[in-house]
Design a protein that fits this description.
Layout (H helix, E strand, L loop, with lengths): L3 H15 L9 H14 L4 H18 L5 H26 L1
Length: 95
Amino acid sequence: MASQQEQLEAWSGRLLRALELEGTPVEVSAVLDLAAAAAHSVVRPAAPLTTFIAGYAAGMAAGSGQADDAVAMRSAMAVAASECAGAAAEKGGME
């Protein structure tokens, strides 16, 4: 039986092929880390929303030529992670 990581890698590959994005590097663990940060620092449903918006921002940056794919994704994920940290700090101050 395949591990969870292997299943996620396979699923990622399947989606990339279906969306005609084969060969696009996806750091599954980084995406999951961002989703976890959003879920824990905001609210649980923020996880898919945050990863979607970060991916969209990265796609826009790469598509407009502002950055190559890898730089665009790292930058968008870093901004999103920073916002999650800020939300967690705000949430911590409210308790």
